Amino acid sequence: MATAATLSLKPPVSFFYGGNQRDGGRRVTVARVSRGEKFHESIVRLSASTVLFLGLSSLRVCSPASARLLPPPIVATENEISTETVAGEENHEVEDEKLEADFEAYKAKVYSLSVPLKLVALRGSVPPSWIKEFMSSQGKRVRLKTRFLANLEEIFFDLSKPSKKGKKGSASTAAADMISIGDSWLSYAIKEKLIEPMKGIEDQDWYKGLSDRWKVYLRRNYAGEKAPDGEMWAVPYRWGTIVIAYKKSKFQNYKLAPIEDWDDLWRPELAGRIAMVNCPREVIGAVLKYMGASYNTTDLDSQVAGGRIAVENNLASLMKQIRLFDSNNYLKAFNVGDVWVTVGWSSDIIPVAKRMSNVTVIVPKSGATLWADLWAIPAVSDSGKEAEKIGGRVRGPSPIIHQWIEFCLQPTRSLPFTREVIPGASPSALEGTLVKEPKEAKKDRSKLDTNLISGVPPPEILSKCEFLEPLPEATLLEYHLLVDTVKKQSQRPSLVEKLQDIVSIRVPGFRKKLDSEMKKNI
Fold first, then answer.
1. Residue 33's pLDDT is what?
2. C-alpha span between 465 and 455 (Å, rounded)
3. What's the rounded Cα separation, in Å, for the pair 147 and 117?
4. What is the sign, positive or negative, of the torsion defined by CA atoms of 183, 349, 326, 490?
5. DSSP state, 85?
6. Fewest Cβ atoms closer than 10 Å to its Cβ: which of 104, 325, 440, 500?
């Protein structure tokens, strides 16, 4: 009678760790058979190994614990499974040469264990070379799916919008393993429970290598406030600054001094020649830096010289200088020549400045705001059924998210930034040394007139730059009300403007002639 075969589906430790010899006491045992039952033994072994392999591919992907490990690149062959896993064979020779030849041929077959990784990212923020290099480093083990959206607002909207009929689908942002999120959205995303904290990261190499400045900024409590003992909610992969760009040719033609700092925006000759992003914290922040205060001022009366009244007066003066506050069209006005100066994010301005001629881009000497693009994990329901409805993330994100983060933070990943393929800088450049590119590469690239060094402000300016930290709701409300109040006041026509309007109604062509004379006098 044939000897019975027994099978245990618990995998050996060596399988998970690519040959690591730590023994977890987990073995696959196949009882030996008599010489007369060799063919039956072969079938049993093949069946057991096949079941083991298929079972492990499922366990490896779905195991919650695997999300906290750094699994090795897996293109597994049966040769990688230790021979000690077959009980009773250590000290015995295979009796039948044909059977051993068949078994060795079976073990030599290659099986690719594919692990999915879904990314939803801001278009233009991830260097194309990253995708190719990551896939190349992982071989066939990764099924990488990427989806790029036009702006961070679109990603955030897709993440927060309610599901339709209880389902969002596998293409939804909420079904992704990681998404791009701007640091200015981080607090709100945490409070609204749109993302989840990154657990068990202290032992990850990428976390150990992350600078303290990033850790302090990104550790938050569940209210989205900075907290030293809070959770880590996101990881940076790119950052930049607010910059000022101006048309050097116009400044030279009219013999104007170059722009170097925030106070230059208040120069009378630039009135009506400036466009700026429509962001209350950036607008108020420019005034605060002009007054020698911090972007993250929480009390205007106690922390700023002259208090709220002085801030309001300087803001009113700046409003008269700005022709356009518009985050969507401020660069269009600059490009067509309606304005000579523009203030905005480096990720927007630098690509446009490169396409134009005679444009200078600077980070103000007294410092500017810093922005960052982050990787975050979308929050999903704890319920398996609910999670299944939004694309299959039943047991957490992909187990290789830490490998993706580790890859993005490697020093060599900064080359697309230093080569100016993508505007911005690597997170390591915030407090570390820059990776220098070959001189030959610099010769082949057009030079942009800027004080940025490979996308990074000079050290003496960078030390004065600040991230926009979470502010109390009362302070944010005060900022918004202040901007709205001053805007309404600045929109009221003066007595001279009223007289001009009256005359233009009665005298045809008066307004056109007046505008022409004003341009001549600039």
1. 41
2. 14
3. 11
4. positive
5. G
6. 440
In the block, residue with structure tokens 């062509």: 509
Amino acid type, 79: N
Residue 92 lies in a domain: yes
Are 28 and 82 part of one and the same domain?
yes
> Cα(424)–Cα(446) distance, rounded to whole angstroms?
17
- Tell the residue number behind the tokens 């420019």, with chain if given: 286
Exposed / middle / buried, residue 393 (Cβ in 10 Å: 0-12, 13-18, 19+):
buried
- Cβ distance 26 to 81 under 8 Å? no
Instruction: Check whether residue 363 and residue 465 sit in a common domain.
Output: yes
Q: How far is CA 504 from CA 272, 323, 508, in A?
A: 21, 22, 6
In a domain, 276, yes or no: yes
The distance of Cα 474 from the centroid of its chain, to the nearest Å, equals 29
**Residues 120, 20 within the same domain:** no
Write down the pLDDT at residue 111: 36
Structure tokens at 448: 């942009």
Cβ 378 vs Cβ 176: under 8 Å: yes
At residue 395, the pLDDT reads: 52
Rg (the chain; Cα; Å) = 31
Say how many residues make up the chain.
522
Query: By C-alpha distance, which of 436, 373, 378, 459 is closest to 124?
Result: 373
pLDDT for 174: 85
Cβ-based burial of 254 (10 A; exposed 0-12, middle 13-18, buried ≥19): exposed
Average confidence (pLDDT) per 10 residues, the chain, 522 residues: 36 34 35 43 43 36 31 33 35 49 46 72 92 85 87 86 55 87 94 92 93 95 94 97 96 96 97 94 96 96 95 95 92 93 96 92 97 93 52 64 93 87 92 58 66 93 96 93 87 56 58 55 50
247 phi-psi bin (left φ>0, alpha ψ -120 to 50, beta other) = beta
One domain, residues 138 and 227: yes
Instruction: Please name the helix (run of DSSP H) or strand (run of DSSP E) that holds residue 510, with its range, or none.
Output: helix 510-521
Question: End of a domain among 69, 84, 111?
Answer: 111
Q: Decide: residue 64, CB within 10 A, 0-12 exposed, 13-18 middle, 19+ buried.
A: exposed
pTM of this structure = 0.70
Does 127 fall in a domain? yes
Report yes or no: 420 and 347 within 8 Å, Cβ to Cβ: no
Tokens of 362: 């600077």
The answer to whether residues 54 and 192 belong to one domain is: no
Helices assigned H by DSSP within 145-185: 152-160
Task: Give the Cα separation of 177 and 154 in Å (integer).
Answer: 17
Tokens 């050097």, residue located: 248
Q: Is 329 in the same domain as 265?
A: yes
